[in-house]
Amino acid sequence: MSLADVVEEVAGVERAILEHRRPLSTVSVARRMAWAARRKTTRVEDEAYSLMGIFGVNIPAIYGEGRNAFYRLQEEILKHIPDQSIFAWGPLVFERYAWSCTQFGEAPLPETTREDEPNGYLFAPSPTAFEHSSRIDPLPLDEFERQVAIRVPVPEYTITSYGIRTLLPLATLWLPAAKERRLEQQLAVHVAVLACADTMDGLVALLLSSSPGQNPGHEQYKVGCRYPAGFVRGVSLRCLPDISPNPSSSVPFPRIDNNVHLGNANPVMTTIYIPYRPFELTVESYATRHGRRLPPTQNSETTRNPYFVCPCEVVIPQWTLAALHNTGYTISRPVPVEGDDSNSTTVIHIADAGPMVCIVLSRGEDEHIYIGLGPCQGAHSSFVPRMLTAPVSFGKLPVQLPEATTGTQVSANGTHVRTCKAVHVQDWRAGSATFDSEKGTHVRLTVGAWTDYMGSGNDRGLYALSVEVWTARNSS
Known about the structure:
single chain, 9-stranded mixed β-sheet, alpha+beta, 9 helices, 5-stranded mixed β-sheet
């Protein structure tokens, strides 16, 4: 097996591309993004900077800008490559999927969830969003015109404060009846056909939502809708069912098969404004991310934390090591973990299953404080990522809890914990918890998120762990 075979199998890059028998320019933007969907980078900005070569574009490297880098990369690609597959990412529904396409003939849910928010823009938050878009290819303009049966001008894109302004073939999929428009809680759903097609399911379109009371000429839309089966931002036109004409509730949009035009229900070229990225994407400094905290929720005594789940990497910052050293403590990894050859005490890799990784703080020959880091072993739902746990014990290794019970507190010596929730970092107030020994030693652990699991586009969290140890007579 050659290196080209290995790269093709792992990354999906065709052998003909690797051997320069096929020009890279013939590969769609979506497919090139899909090659990098599973790539992991040390710094989030490198997700964008490492892709400049395969797209033939250049953007300044500004470390510290976070997800802004990937949004800037997509802006530059849009300027140089005429390929609308750049918009075909995320939750897309095709006819071959076991997904109830009949839901498109019904009203969408009026509200979306926090997890839906990154999918509601034209541009993707990371290459991971293109993982299932490798079959999507652009269509030449004349072929696109033939399939939608209308004249389509050369696409142009203008970035404005209201989003990207462009001209797309637009048809209405769902329009609620007037009596359903109270408080504008119902959404009108439209189909914006893209000049690209899935190799198996044909033309691809974006689902755009708008307020049914929107004034004519205010063509502002959001990408995607939530249906009972989940959030959808795009669909193959073959998946759209026939909708019986009912002027009081919806506008018919027929099924489209290969080589069949849209007939009398052709979409109309419409100037639209679509948000292309989050307008208030916070760019935090390294120091801020190091101990990131979200503000308390309104009318609540608890603090909202980022998600602290496994798999993840936990970093113990140098200032914590220096503070421990000043009070006479050394830090070590007494129990090596299978598969972790680093044995590092500053960067700890934690899998989504398996035993805890343990570090020990020692002072003299008799004083030992054990800190365990690992996935919760409780009987939680399989749909929920494993929570990061951090039990502390004095004088002996902490024990992983076999089951998830509730209502029991951590005992004074840290060895009689009967509930996994007590050591869930996610459930700590402001990401901090204090453990006390019978001899008067206190240990405070504080965990902060550098990369929020649910919003990063990555499958590994990156967290900072600070450790403070003090007694009744001194503090550190």
